[in-house]
Amino acid sequence: MLTTDHEPGLDPIPQGPTTARSLDWFRTATRWTQLTFVEDDPLHFDPEFWISVMRQSRSNALCLSAGGYMAFYPTRIPFHYRSRHLGNTDPFGDLVAGARELDMHVMARVDPHAIHADAAQAHPEWLARDADGNPIPHWAFPDIWLTDPFSTYHREFITDVAREIVRDYDVDAVFANRWEGPSAISYSEAAERRFFDDTGLHLPRTQDRTDPAWRAYTAWRSRQLSELVVLWDDAVREVRPHARFIPNRGAMLTRDLVRDLVDDRYPMFFIDKQGRSENEALWWSGRIGKRSRGMFPDRPVALITSVGPEHGEYRWKDSVADPHEIVTWMADGFVHGALPWYTKFNANVFDTRWVAPIVDAFGLHERVAGVFEGMAITSEVAILDNVRLDPTNPWAGYTAGSVDEDGFYQALVEARVPFDYLADTELTLERLAPYRVLILPNCRALSDAHCAVIREWVAGGGSLVAAHESSLVTDGDGTELALGDVLGVRLTQAPRGPVKNNYIALDPQHPLAAGFDGATRVVGGTRLVGVEPIEIPTAAGTAGADVTTVPFRFVPDYPDLPMEEVYPRGGEGSAAVVCREQPGGGRSVYLAFNVGEILWAAMQHDHARLIRNAVAWALGGEPRVRIEGQGFVDVAVRTDATSMAVALVNLNNPMAMRGQNRETIPLPPQEISVALPDGATGATARLVLADTWAPAHVADGRVHVSVPAVDVLEVAHLTWTYARPGPQQP
């Protein structure tokens, strides 16, 4: 679907500066262009090229370099370093004006992480310092110096820069990059003095994390940065009431700030994950959207994507990623709620091959955005996003994902199961209410409060799938599974491994053994937990019987060498999978090994099948949405009172598990089956990207829609029909 014509033939964007300067401007900033200037850009900056790209791509928001480390406008603030090529030009102002003529929102980018030598000499108090008191030079560029985020540079100088920008230019926000300071303690006099005044302790000077100063520093740093967010935001709002100062931070990364201080200071989030690198799957962008919604479901999130290739620590910002990669990466992100944002470093364009895929990806988003507007992303299954922050590591923050989670995610995408994330900080009965199944891939950081909520939710009919060390706790009384009473198991042996040659034996009669025909045993795990089922008395007044079964057991260990000794010795092993039909009407499945981790590492299809079967059995009936067909497809479902949108993203590519895609291979035809809501007798179906109506037929309370081959994306928009108008119709 990649075009070569940069004009996609859509309706013209309204011209003129008509964008409302409202307090909720961010809700209509849905397609972002970012241009990060370099110092020599004023020599050859062509604003008309960028205005043309923004027009063609239907961008409605712009993030543009303004100042901080380097100013690209005629600043009047002393020691605010101007590009030495700026002269009498104003590239920042020129493009701001051009964007406003396109009716776009504008956000100014500042970067406070380093300063030039003249400022360092005049203001040594602005500098970050090592344990010996020496200024810290920049790691990548000579003759510039890292700044101390707890100094007057951040609190006063950058505040003045932000005020100047929002006073002199028509912008909606200021965005700060690399604002938290270096990933090391700054031993400046100001930091030492403020830390001692606030805590009575000196800054930690050893790597011994048992030193109380480390825990105190983590909390102190969190509060200092949070107060900085508030200071900056207040400053710009005083000048321009609708404007905001939004330091770069993903939703999950706000965990290491003080939420009571910053919660209302982040109207939206920007996730700086600019593309795939190494062995990351093509669904990675969609997970970013899910993860952010799992913590802040009602706040927009934009996914910052580079037009250049990403590969670990290597940065080729003047080159171009494969166009097919760019489009699919963005599409999978925005169907799961991560708005498209592309970033281009350097206004001098050496390679224009990125323009067409940006136009295509943004065009796809514009075409589905009208359908998605007002619809909520919904699903019946959720993964609990459970993480424990180290109180002695101020830079740990939140790192996305784990190998256990990666494996479960891969299995669910392969199974075409729509699913959400739910942040453990948001784990309440109210947030759990929409879901039928909650998955704990390997949730070891569950608190008593978490377990109490899950226990109550399951008692009310919810279903639970838990694996490996989920809810494992060790205290003075020993080690146990805190949710053992829910899962119907007791711990008999502490976790062990790695085990090199483990297998699990199957009960072919159990639904979890579906699809394993011909096998009496399959590969197990490398890390095992010893459990056995327990009998739990059924409380009076419960909805159903309490039945616990063990459909899979571990084969007792035997060696993997010498080859003559590689055979089972007999006997019955401990329970590998325990299924329980809960008295409240729900179900639980406990997998007593690292099924997610081993799936992600070894890619054994049997493990994916086991996860799929466990979730299907836990659902306890037909899923609301079922997708059938060949190929690798990611599914997202949105609903409102009268309709449903089922999005199918084509991941069917030999490079799906490692970038970059080199071509778009059409996904074979798919069949969508959806349970009719109460009162509905049928549905009409329109394929949004194909721009055509699709036949929809009803059988057994479900509506069935056929979707022809999918290029990158298709959205089937189903609108419910009713036998007659009346009170039952929404």
Automatic annotation (TrEMBL):
<dbReference type="InterPro" id="IPR029062">
    <property type="entry name" value="Class_I_gatase-like"/>
</dbReference>
<dbReference type="InterPro" id="IPR028212">
    <property type="entry name" value="GHL6"/>
</dbReference>
<protein>
    <recommendedName>
        <fullName>Beta-galactosidase trimerisation domain-containing protein</fullName>
    </recommendedName>
</protein>
<dbReference type="InterPro" id="IPR052177">
    <property type="entry name" value="Divisome_Glycosyl_Hydrolase"/>
</dbReference>
<dbReference type="Pfam" id="PF14871">
    <property type="entry name" value="GHL6"/>
</dbReference>
<dbReference type="InterPro" id="IPR017853">
    <property type="entry name" value="GH"/>
</dbReference>
